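Let's practice the habit of predicting before peeking. Look at the sequence and jot down your guess about where helices and strands might fall. Then scroll down.
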Amino acid sequence: MTQPMIQLSTLVHATQSDSLLDIFLKVNNVSYLNNKAKARVEAKALAGLARQLLRLPNFSIAKQGGYILNFAITFKIREEFDVLRFSKDTVLNIELKSQFPRKSSIIEQLRRHKVILDTLGKQTIICSFVRQENKLYLLKNDHLIQISFRQLSNLIAEDYLLENELATIQVPDKKDVNQRYLSKIINRRKRLRFTIKK
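Done guessing? Here is the structure:
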């Protein structure tokens, strides 16, 4: 099944009316019928983020398009990506939260997404938008750092692909994903110990 792609400005307009939003989500969100309430909450959160981005002078029309809502991988593991956007050199994943969850749980989720998206061989931009706080957090070096809307806009590529590249990859199983992160952390700690002993 082809994943519909949305324009952020269209989403913002659709959130002005519940009935319009329902129609928009039926057309553009393949998981809408499975969980309407969740889809509405996430759409409103994304619209809140979009409003912030659309105010920026450097957020061009090209950057407004190509967003895929609620794509789930169900091969050996189940991971759901709230928002994806693929370009020639980058892949953007934005996870939408109504309020800030436990920090460890959000970092764990973003790390899993990074491992999966890294299989595409592109620069991955993994972040979370917390609607209640109206704040953005970027996963950088396995840590969450707060970034501005302008910084996110600068990270978003001017181009986007008309396909969901994630739909065509073979996803590692969850055990492998967790093992790869554990190996990364152990190797990083070994390097740190080595440099400290010098």
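How did you do? Helices lie at 8-14, 18-28, 36-54, 103-118, 149-155, 174-197.
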